[in-house]
Design a protein that fits this description.
With 360 residues, the chain is an alpha/beta fold. The strands form three sheets. The chain has a seven-stranded mixed sheet, with helices on both faces. A four-stranded parallel sheet has the order 8-7-9-10, with helices on both faces. α1 packs across α3, α5 crosses α12 and α8 runs parallel beside α9.
Length: 360
């Protein structure tokens, strides 16, 4: 694994109340003419903040004038620890999440902590509600798998001084520590394998580019193809709003309908999307891998037991969970700035990736 420590400050898009009409730290900062982290430290009475009494008074007066109400999570940071950590995921039925949560829980139990799990269902509003519900229960920190490149929940937690760690994904400016896979490297390896077998006609099912994993995987595919002088035309690229089997099937239907000749290989952003590709191949009477090859990403449980076994990129999911928990304890112990830990993926070559017909 490799790691980088960046610890960069957030760069919010601009002031304005959130969806509940709450005045935010950035609003106070804009009105007071200071950085929002300074506002956070002054309002928390951080003894290490270096501002004059005049500036501190101006910040407090501005906060009062705007009606700023401190985040309850920030207040909880100075209360007695309840030895609990909130874990927020998109969909606990997604086979990627249970091994990660198992890894998180193993480390937390070893330190006498319990896990509070929230299932956001790909709904940003629900995610915000969970943040607030967990804050009311005074959890000691958060480990989240719902992170977007620009993520208000992460920004809010960081601004409030809340220990928070992301797994699988990063924010654009690496605001918080994260345990991730080197997704780009994994996809480059997958492309190299397919091109090495003689494939040249690729289609890709990607995910929303608001997610670091989706961006990194698509970048890796493009880089891998470019290295071999292969283009990815627009009609060979589809995007799913959610990374599941149903959306994967819809995307692959669009790809197959775009041209009379199907692609030789469909590279899918994850294994659930790849299952959708299997479904469409079956419904159209196409043999995999004889007529079309399909690949995934994640190596979800039983990916080697479906027919044909799925060629994919393996992520050490339990290791990601354990590393996420260790990174959170670094934050709880105030041991330095955020760190990004990248785990190397492993290519799993199986039966769903065949050989071009012309080489048969």
């Amino acid at each position: 694994m490799s790691e980088t420590g960046k610890g960069r400050r957030p760069n919010p898009d601009g002031p304005g109340p959130d969806r509940r009409g709450r005045v935010k730290l950035r609003d106070v900062a804009a009105a007071a003419g200071v950085h929002y982290s300074t506002v956070s430290r002054v309002l928390r009475s951080d003894p290490g903040v270096r501002v004059s009494p005049t500036v501190a008074a101006r910040i407090r007066a501005t906060a009062a004038e705007l009606g700023y109400s401190p985040d309850i999570f920030a207040a909880g940071m100075h209360s007695k620890s309840l030895k609990s950590v909130g874990v927020i995921v998109h969909d606990i039925t997604d086979p990627v999440y249970p091994p990660i949560v198992r890894g998180i829980e193993a480390v937390l139990r070893g330190r006498g902590f319990m896990t509070v799990i929230g299932n956001a269902g790909y709904d940003a509003g629900v995610e915000t509600d969970m943040y607030e519900q967990m804050s009311e229960r005074m959890v000691d920190g958060l480990i989240v798998g719902t992170t977007r490149l620009d993520d208000p929940t992460v920004e809010r937690a960081v601004a409030a001084g809340v220990p928070i760690v992301s797994f699988l994904r990063r924010t654009r400016d690496d605001l918080c520590s994260a345990a991730v896979n080197d997704c780009a490297a994994g996809m480059r390896g997958l492309v190299d394998l397919a091109v090495g077998r003689g494939f040249r006609d690729f289609a890709v099912v990607a995910a929303p580019q608001t997610l670091s994993t989706a961006r990194d995987r698509l970048d890796g595919i493009r880089e891998g193809l470019a290295a071999h002088g292969i283009d990815l035309p627009p009609d060979r690229l589809a995007q799913v709003p959610r990374m599941n089997r149903v959306e994967g099937a819809r995307a692959v239907r669009r790809l197959l309908d775009a041209r009379a000749t199907p692609p030789e290989v469909v590279i899918c952003v994850n294994d659930l999307v790849a299952l959708g590709a299997y479904d469409v191949a079956a419904e159209r009477g196409m043999d995999c891998p004889g007529d079309i090859s399909i690949t995934g990403f994640n190596d979800m449980p039983m990916a080697d037991m479906i027919s044909p076994p799925l060629t994919t990129v393996r992520m050490e999911l339990e290791a990601i969970g354990r590393q996420s928990a260790e990174l959170l304890f670094e934050q709880l112990d105030e041991r330095g700035p955020p760190r990004i830990v990248r785990l190397a993926p492993e290519l799993k070559e199986r039966g769903s990736l065949g050989w071009p017909r012309r080489r048969a």
